[in-house]
Specification:
The complex is a heterodimer of chains A (198) and B (68). Chain A is α+β, with helices and mostly antiparallel strands. Chain A has helices at residues 18-27, 62-66, 92-96, 132-138, 150-153, 165-179, 188-192, and strands at 4-8, 37-41, 49-53, 72-74, 80-82, 160-164. The chains are: A alpha+beta (198), B mainly alpha (68).
């Protein structure tokens, strides 16, 4: 069974932020929330690296482990999704996530945050596929349409890879064999508890 | 209490019956809203977890161009 994964080839990322913009547009993500963001390390210095980050859909997701209402579930495709109907906006998942993926739409009095929002791997949510309710709460369900996350599909330098973990790992391996290891596949070890033999 | 006062009490709705009537209106309003919530029912557990990924032509093209 294919396991869905993201892989950001940091040697190729040019910090154009097109993945961030495409995601926001595709899912009509509310103001103040970025399901994906580009993080630049050593900005303006030698060795500068940019990495496109979102929910990595971890194998043993820490967000799910700490959720007091168990609103998270992992699909057969290994995509970590959540139910906004169950979410109480407590913020525990935000503190547990090593990637800072969970986002909240509100900053209210007494710590009220609203329902958590995060990357869905373009796989919708617990509502019926292609329904209006699913689109309004979670965005488009591209995976059910036979497509992959838009952020990866429209990456101009093919830095961001998405899809079957085995296939994208082999694509990355081919690249590394040609050009050398470079900065590595950032975040893989944390998310998937694997060593990358490339 | 005069006879006219007693007559007025029976005609005008008192405080308790006013709120009782108001509660009835609220219940019927809630009942009117409920069917729309049912219409957007969530998927079953099996439906939620089922695999949606498939290696369509679109996905194969994505893998192919990423090897360039």
């Amino acid at each position: 069974m294919a396991r869905m994964k993201f892989l950001c080839d940091a040697d190729r990322c040019i910090e154009c932020n097109a993945c961030v913009t495409a995601c926001k547009n595709e899912h009509e993500v509310p103001w103040g929330i970025n399901r994906r963001r580009v993080v630049t390390i050593n900005d303006g210095k030698p060795g500068e690296r940019s990495v496109s980050m979102a929910c990595m859909h971890c194998t043993d997701a820490p967000c799910a482990a700490v959720c007091p209402v168990s609103c998270f579930y992992t699909t057969v495709d290994a995509v970590v999704l959540h139910s906004k109907d169950l979410c109480i906006g407590c913020g525990y998942c935000f503190y547990a996530c090593p990637f800072g993926a969970p986002q909240y739409p509100k900053v209210g009095n007494f710590g009220s945050r609203g329902k958590m929002d995060k990357c869905t791997y373009c796989a919708g949510g617990p509502e019926a596929d292609f329904s209006t309710a699913e689109y309004e709460k979670y965005g488009r369900n591209r995976l059910a349409e036979g497509k992959l996350p838009l952020c990866a599909e429209m990456c101009s330098t093919k830095s961001l890879l998405a899809g079957d973990g085995d296939i994208i790992a082999s694509i990355y391996k081919e690249r590394v064999m040609k050009r050398g290891y470079g900065s590595g596949a950032w975040g893989w070890k944390t998310a998937y508890k694997e060593t990358i033999n490339v | 209490m005069t006879e006219s006062d007693q007559k007025r009490d029976t005609q005008v709705m008192d405080r308790r019956s006013f709120f009782r009537a108001g509660g009835g209106v609220a219940v019927s309003a809630a009942a009117a809203v409920l069917p729309t919530q049912d219409a957007e029912a969530s998927e079953s557990r099996e439906e939620r977890l089922k695999a949606r990924y498939r290696e369509s032509e679109h996905v194969k093209a994505f893998y192919r161009v990423n090897r360039y």
